[in-house]
Design brief:
Bound molecules: adenosine-5'-diphosphate
CATH superfamily of the largest domain: ATPase, nucleotide binding domain
Largest sheet: 5 strands, mixed
CATH class of the largest domain: Alpha Beta
Radius of gyration: 18 Å
Order of helices and strands: EEEHEEHEEEHHHHEHEH
Number of domains: 2
CATH architecture of the largest domain: 2-Layer Sandwich
Number of helices: 8
Length: 258
């Protein structure tokens, strides 16, 4: 029998399928979040990859910002519990997690038994979130997936002094008008996002190993900037964006066993 976790975020929908021994079977990420057909498409795609039918899913759990709208799931669990569980599966022994998604960022402290013991969250402000990077990519007429490569070409850093995402956007526009090199601007944008993540991590307390999860973990420029800012190795994984869905699938296995 199989188990499913569905993580419905503000920017994307993720689905993970696992077997009863907590072995990974399939995953899918659709770049449309809550309020769209994204969750259903993510489920359909993960089922297609697994080759399984809906009837083979013993139990499913929904998590994320849009979890309450996904009535097809057997149960709903908070993002924090799912992220912590998913992070421990991705990197056994992980002690600190920085999760940066489309609309919020959170830092999680995990003890040596793999339990979530503390967290700090930023969900009031776009600065340092995926949304901030998406807006900046649009201003620079590029894609968010191209930012890391641009950053690598930087030969300097244009400092972004505004902490507010709206003011930072105006600052980038005026730097563009002054012919600032785009790679150096991207490096400054990544530094700014990393500074926000670093302050969350400092507030929760940093114990290595540190794992980055959420979609922004796909942006190697932010990961590098965070490692440089903190002087700490920041690990990522091909499963980073699906950490919440992984945790939800693992909790589905546990709930079914009870
Ligand atoms: P949520 O769970 O809130 O819906 P995600 O964890 O999926 O959000 O993160 C979405 C963010 O991840 C996007 O806003 C974008 O900035 C970033 N992102 C997603 N895919 C990539 C990619 N391939 N390269 C760089 N950044 C990415």
């Amino acid at each position: 029998m199989l188990y499913m976790g569905v993580d419905i975020g503000s920017a994307s929908s993720k689905c993970v399928i696992m077997d009863g021994s907590a072995c990974f079977v399939a995953k899918a990420v659709v770049p449309s979040g809550t309020g769209t057909s994204g969750p259903e498409r993510a489920v359909k795609e993960a089922l297609r990859i697994s080759g399984a039918g809906t009837e083979q899913i013993s139990f499913s759990i929904a998590t994320g910002y849009g979890r309450n709208t996904f009535t097809a799931a057997g149960d709903r669990v908070s993002e924090l519990s799912c992220h912590a569980k998913g992070a421990v599966w991705i990197l056994p022994g992980v002690r600190t997690v920085i999760d940066i998604g489309g609309q919020d960022a959170k830092a999680l402290a995990i003890n040596d038994e793999g339990r979530l013991v503390n967290f700090v969250m930023n969900d009031k402000c776009a600065a340092g979130t995926g949304r901030f990077l998406d807006v900046m990519a649009r201003v620079l007429e590029t894609e968010v997936g191209e930012l890391a490569e641009l950053d690598e070409k930087a030969d300097g850093v244009v400092q972004i002094s505004s902490t507010c995402a709206v003011f930072a956007e105006s600052e980038v526009i005026s730097q563009l008008a002054n012919n600032a090199p785009i790679p150096n601007l991207v490096a400054g944008i990544h530094r700014s996002a990393a500074a926000r993540a670093a302050s969350l991590l400092k507030r929760v307390g940093i114990t290595e190993p540190v794992l980055m999860t959420g979609g922004v973990a796909n942006n190697a420029g932010v990961v590098r900037a965070l490692a440089v800012t903190l002087g700490v190795e920041i690990r990522t994984s091909p499963f980073s964006q699906t950490a919440g869905a992984l945790g939800a699938a693992l909790i589905a296995i546990e709930k079914q066993r009870k």
